[in-house]
Amino acid sequence: MSDPADTAPSSFLRFRDDAPHDEPAVTLDAFLGQSNATAVRLEAGDDARALLPYLDRIALVEVSFPKFRDGRGYSSARVLREAGYEGELRAQGDVLVDQLLPMRRCGFDSFAPEAPIDQTTAEAALARYDHVYQRAADPVQPVWKLRHG
After folding, report:
1. Which CA distances in Å does 65 have to 57, 68, 72, 107?
2. Phi/psi zone of residue 84: left (φ > 0), alpha (ψ -120 to 50 degrees), beta?
3. What gap in Å lies between CA 111 and CA 125, rounded to an integer?
């Protein structure tokens, strides 16, 4: 896990080696209406597929989680990663420590939770399970695939 930028909030967690993107993210509507933004914010209910033609020029996609139980952002992350997006994908908002592992599996590589998450606690949550049971956007093979080829 790399160190966050000096300007990042104290609760910022990042799992990338490149420098954090510091351009403010614009809304999806604003992005689609202009040609020079490189950071986009998806609100709950926005369709991530609208970004697919522009993935090569986007450095950061910030996905809003207004409530921890709103799972639409997981789908947005997976759509983007499976379409080949390699830029920073940040979960922002009501992000809890027990959501970090499934969020990472869907493709998120940075987090800006409203409530701080201790780095040691985050790393323990991410290392908790040796095996997974479902396929996701990450390359981890499910345990059934390991058993049965």
Report:
1. 24, 6, 8, 15
2. left
3. 14
Q: Pick the closest to residue 4 from 26, 28, 29, 21 (CA basis).
A: 21
Question: Rounded CA gap, 148 and 52, in Å?
Answer: 35
Q: Tell me the one-letter amino acid at 76.
A: S
Strands of 1-147, DSSP E: 13-14, 26-27, 39-42, 60-65, 88-93, 110-113
Element (H, E) at 76: helix 72-82
Q: What is the CA radius of gyration of the chain?
A: 15
Note the pLDDT of residue 143.
Answer: 75
Distance CA(116)–CA(60), nearest Å, equals 21
Closest to 9 measured CA to CA, from 116, 118, 108: 116
How confident is residue 10, by pLDDT bands cut at 50, 70 and 90?
Answer: low
Distance separating the N- and C-terminal Cα atoms of the chain = 31
What are the angstrom distances between the C-alpha of 12 and each of 16, 32, 37, 107? 12, 27, 22, 17
pTM of the entire predicted model: 0.82
